[in-house]
Write a structure and sequence with these properties.
213 residues; alpha/beta; Rossmann fold; Arc Repressor Mutant, subunit A; six-stranded parallel β-sheet; two-stranded antiparallel sheet
Length: 213
């Protein structure tokens, strides 16, 4: 990241929030850590503070955390990591379908949680230990099968017609960083330019025919 980021933690257990906040406070890439204990508080902080990334528990007192995931994903550039107790396949699938970029159980090693958060912040996707990948996921076709999760997300954005500035806003990086990552993406796929990327991405089913990622 070009600047320290703002992290939003939403969990109804203060001990969990404060412990994770203290851990994140030791990370050089973390600036502010905001805390909420409910869907209402999390949604309000997401709307007013515009965090760069969020950690959400599913068991919140005033409603399902899944609804908060949906709300936060409407905030540009705010990927969501679900951190909760359960790890059953149905719940994981529902969270991923709602837009979560990662899913980690609370019994995961704290260091792994921090790494997972950094992964989703950088545009990747992650499933923590003991969390199975959702069955039936579509296989990514060549040349996109060689990409990292972050590169795959970038490919979808670019192929859907997002401008450099729009991609930068979505990924919370600078325009220069986006241009560098696109050059790396084209080199990794062997494609010549954005036009060729869009055509191949459509053929591979990465974006729907209407061009919306």
């Amino acid at each position: 990241m070009d600047e320290p980021v703002t992290v939003l933690l939403v969990d109804d257990h203060p001990l969990v929030r404060h412990g994770l906040a203290a851990l994140l406070g030791t990370e050089s890439w973390v600036g502010a850590v905001l805390q909420g204990g409910s869907v209402r508080e999390g949604a309000a902080l997401g709307a007013t503070a515009r965090p760069d990334v969020a950690v959400v528990d599913l068991g919140l007192p005033d409603g399902p955390g899944l609804e908060l995931v949906r709300r936060l994903r409407r905030t540009p550039g705010c990927p969501v990591l679900v951190l909760t107790m359960t790890g059953d396949d149905g719940t994981v699938r529902a969270c991923l379908a709602a837009g979560a970029s990662g899913y980690v159980r609370k019994d995961t090693d704290p260091g792994a949680v921090v790494r997972a958060l950094r992964t989703v912040l950088d545009g990747g996707q992650v499933l923590g230990p003991g969390v199975r990948a959702a069955p039936g996921a579509a296989r990514v076709l060549p040349p996109f099968d060689r990409l990292s999760p972050g590169q795959l997300r970038l490919a979808r954005l670019v192929a859907a017609g997002a401008t450099t500035s729009a991609v930068a806003a979505e990924l919370a990086v600078s325009d220069k960083t986006v241009r560098n990552r696109i050059s790396e993406l084209l080199a990794a796929t062997g494609l010549a330019d954005r036009v060729q990327l869009a055509l191949r991405a459509r053929e591979a089913g990465l974006i729907p025919p209407n061009g919306v990622a």
